[in-house]
């Protein structure tokens, strides 16, 4: 039996885009990106990072398990296509992306970026003033990429506008080949001590949390052709991601969505920017949002499992017809949880 493929996330995304590139993938309010556009924009970011000397400098096979031989890109941003593109673009350039909690105050932000040894930072303009307060204390941070937003904040000195990088130009990506050993880095929140960076090999996190294992059957993908072939014939899946992408659970849902929604020609819905301002909705609703995302995933998985099971289906609960949850009921429940009683 031939050995299974060792996966990288950019290659999996490219396989999906090659099969259903013109289908819409990310939807956030009026913003819509196809699978192909997502991959092309992330490849342009990767080319830019590579042109600035960022990438892998020491292979993992030559390092102890706790050390990192790659440059690290912090993502200090609200939910949006840029977050997904930032992760994919970093991996394509063999740079390790990591999450930055946008609610951190000055001292916490300085600690996190210093602990990570971040070389580059992708951030929304709204956070520019706070970032400016700590830049002098971050000697390794040499590349700033600013995402324009409604804040109106000007580019920090030396920063590069994000759209100027990804909007146009060659989209083949840099002349490097990502490795299954390249890292996914996820920082803990710091509730049980100082934040800590958890390191995953890219292949390992893909197989456990990014869609390499079917949510419905447990079957493992064995090659990129498997992923591409699943895209053509299955019914569309719609995945709504509610929590901030700075949380691991939200990242896993999105990146699983590339394989899951991609495998069914589906779509990924992101909440509008600033929807998770604590001042607007409070901690209770934030935790409800996280729980709601997991409930929606579970309901969707259960519905598909029921459709594919050969066993006799039990009676369907109210709001579920033909094995599929009522979208009106689901969206109505989410709206109710967030205070919209109309």
**Nearest-integer average pLDDT:** 80
Order of helices and strands: HEEHEHEHEHEEHEEHHEHEHEEH
How many distinct helices? 11
- Overall number of strands: 13
The assembly state of the depicted protein chains is: single chain
Q: How much helical structure, as a percent, in the residues?
A: 25-40%
Largest β sheet strand count, sense and barrel closure? 5 strands, parallel
Distance between the termini: 58 Å
Structure classification: alpha/beta
User: What gross morphology would you assign?
Assistant: globular
Stretches where pLDDT falls below 50 for ≥5 residues? Answer: 275-287, 299-327, 333-342
Strand content: 15-25%
Integer-rounded radius of gyration? 20 Å
**Order of adjacent strands in the largest pleated sheet:** 4-3-5-6-7
Description:
With 342 residues, this protein is an alpha/beta fold. 39% of the residues lie in helices and 15% in strands. The strands form 4 sheets. The protein has a 5-stranded parallel β-sheet with strand order 4-3-5-6-7. A 4-stranded mixed β-sheet has the order 2-1-11-10. Helix 1 crosses helix 3. The longest helix has 31 residues. The protein is globular.
